[in-house]
Structure formats: structure tokens, C-alpha cells
Amino acid sequence: MAKVIGLGGIFFKSRDPKALSEWYARHLGLPVDDWGGVRFDEDEQRKGYTLWSAFAADTDYFAPSAQPYMINFRVDDLDGLLAQLRDAGVTVDENVQDSEFGRFGWIMDPEGTRVELWQPPG
């Protein structure tokens, strides 16, 4: 049987795609290619995985964002990255959650989208 084997991409609308791509490159280190996007090749030495998950229409998990989606990025040093982002003036949620699945923190991008940062467990 044919089946899905992973996440193929995250696609979303932006008021200014070039500026938003530059913001993600500068603040989160995304290696944006000339075509305007990022390709994440799998790395067996990198812990973690990619998820796809539907949330209830009335969830407040994405709040305070009004967007109908949230992006989750794997990170290697959550505390270090959150400190860098605060220093750069990025809106950082002071809540950091530790769980059996790892550590989670959140920021807002310049277009009001909540971004989840995930450091997988050691």
C-alpha cells in the first residue's frame, strides 16, 4: 500500500516573503536558499523527528497568534537560542516546558505567527 513517509514541507502565505525569509535566516539560522525556501535533509546523528498533527478548531495552543497554523523547529540549545532571540528584540514567551518529549519554548515572528522551538531529549 502506498503511504506518506514524512513531512514534505510547510507552506504558508506571507505579506512579504523575502523579508520574512530573511528574518528566519537571521534569528533562527535557517539556511534559506536563493529560491526562497529551506531544505532539511535528514541527519541520522540529529535527534528528533518531524510531526504532522491536527488540532481542534477552537484550540488556544497557537495563541496569541491568530494564524491557523504553528511551525515547530528542532533546536540544539533551547536556552541559548531563546537568549539570543531576546537580545535581538524578538517576542519570546517566558514559558518554557520540560517534558518526556524534550524542552519547548515559543516565539512570535514579525507577522504574528507563533513558532514552537523544540529541543529533543538527550
From TrEMBL:
Coiled coil: none annotated. It comes from Dyella halodurans. InterPro entries: Anthracycline_SecMetBiosynth, Glyas_Bleomycin-R_OHBP_Dase, Glyoxalase_6, VOC_core. It comes from the Bacteria. This is VOC family protein. Residues 6-120 form the VOC domain. Gene3D superfamilies: 2,3-Dihydroxybiphenyl 1,2-Dioxygenase, domain 1.
